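Hi support team,

I'm opening this ticket because the web form for multi-chain structure prediction keeps timing out on my end. I have pasted the exact lines I submitted so you can reproduce it. The total is 1189 residues across three entries, so I didn't expect it to be a heavy job. Is there a limit I'm missing, or should I split the entries? Thanks in advance, R.K.
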Amino acid sequence: MWPFIARSLEVATILLIAAIGELLNQRSGVINVGIEGLMLLGAAAGFITASTWGLIPAFIIGMIIGGLFGLIHAILSTSLKVNQVVSGMGIWLFAMGFVTYWADRYSGPLPRGVVSPRIYELSPMFFIALIIVVVIWFVLSKTHLGLKIKSVGENPFAAEVSGVKVIRTRYLCTVIGGVLAGLAGAFLSTTYLGAWSHLPTKGLGWIAFALVMFSLWRPMILLGGALTFGFIWQFAISPETIYAGIPAPLPILRMLPFIATIAVLVIISREKFRKKWALSKPEALGEPYIKE
Amino acid sequence: MISLEALKLKLERIPVVSGGQAVRISLLSLVFSFIIFSIFLSIEGANPIDAYTNIFSFAFDSKLGLPTTLHRGLFLLFSTLAFIVPYSARLWNVGMEGQFYLGTIGAFAVAYSLPTLHPALLIPLMLLSGALFGAGYGALAGYLRGKLNVNEVVGCLMLNNIAFWLVYLLTVGGPWAGIAESTSRPLPPNAHAPIIFYTPFTSYLAVGIAIVLYIFLSKSVLGYKIRVLGNSPTAAQHVGINAPRTYILVMTIGGAIAGLSGYHMWAGDPAFLMIPRPEAYKAIGDLTYWGLIIGLVCLLNPVAAIPTSVFIGSIMVGSTVLVRRLRLPFGLDVLFLGLVSITFAAFQFFYMYRIRRMK
Amino acid sequence: MVSTYLILKYRVVVDDSIRKGMGYSGMDGKVEGGETILEVRGLTKIYPGGVVALDDVDLEFKSGEIHAILGENGAGKTTLMNILYGVLQPDRGEIYLYGRKVRFRSPLDAINMGIGMVHQQRRLIPAHTVLENIILGHPKAGRILDFKKMRREVEELCRKYGFRIDLDARVWQLSAGEQQLVEIIRALYRGAKILILDEPTSVLTPLETEAFLNSLKTMSKQDIALVPFVTHKLPEVFAISDRVTILRRGKVVKRLETKDATMKALAEYMVGKEVLFALSKPKVNIGGEILKVENLSAMNDKGLPAIKDVSFTIREGEIFGIAGVSGNGQQELAEVLAGLRRAETGRIIFMGKDITNTPVLERLKMGIGYIPSERLGVGVIGVFSLVENILMSLYFDKEFVSRGLLNYKKIREYAEKVISEFEVVAPSIYTKAAHLSGGNLQRLILSRVIPRTSKLLIANLPTVGLDVAATEYVRKRLLDCKEKGMGVLLISDDLDEVLQLSDRVAPIYEGRFVSILPAEQAKKEVIGAMMTGAYSGR
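Hello R.K., no limit was hit. The queue was backed up. Here is the completed structure from your submission:
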């Protein structure tokens, strides 16, 4: 039972790190649908680095690559005013192609010895993820920087006249979002999977994206969502560890996380929640900032 | 950050970009991606000019790549059209992958149930079924968005993943499994698409649909209503256009078109004629996202999408030659496509702004 | 790189010395009255396209006095304010602050030098609390927010000037007047010694206005050095200003001490000619009942009641005018009548039929026309051509449609006809609407809606933001509709307009009709008082 929980927490870790990054940049008004792509790039970068240089460099490189493409997204969507969805999708499609070219030749497990240290089978990255969430929660609710970030996402014009540098803030948040997505990807490939396969993210990035939406952009709710979906995902992959002899075939189980996501999205779209959701949503989310 | 003012340049907003400008910008972005790709080619030790010549000569050689170029190109056309219709109402149909899978299921279900039916009856039935299954899946996404206000990008992506596993359920060790256990049974011969001039008849169907859509969007009442809704939901509401119903409608149409591509893909290429292994059919499913890029580049013009799709198809097919013939590393062809995507996205900037020298 | 750093450093030095005072008390303590604090000389601004917004303007603002800037829409007031606040750069001319020449490259420069601005459009974050809005971006806020300390400081500030506001309320919950107060407090908390106020009373009720003007007087007598005050409302000029300067078409046309001015004189300077008052209202026989509204109630977007128990009728050939300050339910009322908003209770009876729940399309087909208050994006679509816009009111008419396809020949002919009839000026009927000016846009909207309206026209703020010529045109058209026997519902925040055009007038306040009076019996002061709460019985 415990091994199952440990693995679920690792999936939750991936979701959490990627989603908290996206939450941060969405709070500043930038939507990044390329999060799956950034995770892929981080996964590839991390895996290739780990094969030669070990885990810590892998995470660092993963973060750098993620940050780099986060920067590209920031340039395209914030400075060049390209539609944020188009920019994100472009990066995702690019990532699919690039990662195949770059990393598929390394298919297979990591070399021996490159293994994550584990505390009772749980990688310490889980605790790092928790720390990241707490830090971001603290920044957003208790610091001046957090207030500035939120104001940029609500009304960049009002923020600008108060002296907040809108463009710089959006760049900062988007790059950090990218860094975290890259880290999540690196963790996925090096630690959780420990081996490379073609496009290993398998839709997790999209679930992380959906998580941000139904967390009402609050880090604590996001934590709960990540834990829940971590369990659902892991259950879908290896249900027999909880309940031997599950009658449903593998594909149906694998659909579960996605069906669950739709179910949650439908629930929160009901009249009751819709108002609360609309109030929590950063008002300027997805809109390019064009100085007057 | 480099300030534009420091460089004595000024950004000027273009209110509406003309067709001619769009063509020029797209060509420019292609050239740009070719140049970037040349860098990768050089790194791998290949001569870029050599490579490109190989790509296009292969792609358009009637004895080699042409049939596949046309087949894949028109497959992309289906995806593009499936994206264009909803996007005319500003809905992001990124669910073409799932609608394509559902269309596959629909078509194959008919074929396996009625394998001895005469082709003249069987094939249209398969097409109809594929379109209906795709339409239903599209309507589902449209309903999520129109009536329940669920963000359609996330909704579609979820549905895509679910659909992938649906196909898996049926083929891998499932009721449709073939001898190989991870692919499906072959399609009955009556289901094979007739080939006309190097390409299955469904390619012509796609072109026909493109022309019909062009007329539909620009000259019909319904097309007009869709465009009003896409440009300003508020204005649309003020003149009596029903948004939820229209959203569901455009997603249904988009889904139907993507559903048709299911038959076209598998029954139209003699190399398949069945549902292949999951990695293979997923790779094809991933191609549907090109519909987004091509649709935006063509400024939502269905007729312009025809040559553009074929061109991208030629790149897709031609670049496999890099791996096979020129012995370049695996995945380089996919990389090229990735580069083209991101460059197209970046060049969207030029659809909106001009850079002018400041006096 | 090094030189940039030096320039930045130098600017900081200059700022500091300006602030530390050069002999002016500046930050702390009282300022001696009568000194020139802010001065502009030869200020000129020309927009791309050749529009001259400001032409060689000289102005002086002295401490301890309220100097009002008076002018019509388009006279250059907002441009002047934007330059003083660093939002725009002048093409020519200089600005002197405490005697030193300065340049504001951005609002941040202006803020740092003690200038605060309250814009016409709110620059607040609706989702955040009042306190959060006030402290946003404050240089002394530090990294980690010490809410307690800042709260105390803000409360102290409010006490000093007599402001009353709930610091923990979310801004979207506040009224327009309260939101404006938040902006003022924010500016003062940032250390503003100079407050620029752009049309501050345009969204206030007279009660709020009075309180506001009083606090302005308090501020100007205390250590706020001066308050340039921008307005087009004559009564306010007399209420509080000491001096007034009138701008017209970007030029200063007159400077006066307020005590030497008269209403008539000011109006003439503002407009440049004898103010037109009488539009001859055609004598029309009022006919039968077209619209009957019974006990109508509806909510606004926030779920609060916007219209409460409203009842009235409109007859053929009659213009029914609703007078009120924007935000008292007029918008919601228009939307309910047009079919865009649900009625909670009550009935709407049109030509004898109950249409309370009839969808928009049906109402359009029945002969109801709606001119929305927002033009671009609602009344017209910018990327559509003139023809395609006019099509918005035609597409459901079988005359222009055959077998599901649009009959472009007929549509074109119709479009050409109405475009010329309504004098929409554009190179061709295929010009994109986004290229039209404000007045032309409104003509386009009229050309789309009016010919397709047969019974009832709802005109929501039809002349807002238009210049004099366009305004006259729109009013003439409304009278035309009346002559043709249509019923017209006119919603306007311009009391003169309502009184001029309407046959019956209903002042609205907080969602209720205070009364319904025939125009002859409606005295301007009485209606004005009614629409601002004096008669609400609270």
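A quick check on our side: The longest helix of chain B spans residues 119-146. Let us know if the file doesn't open in your viewer.
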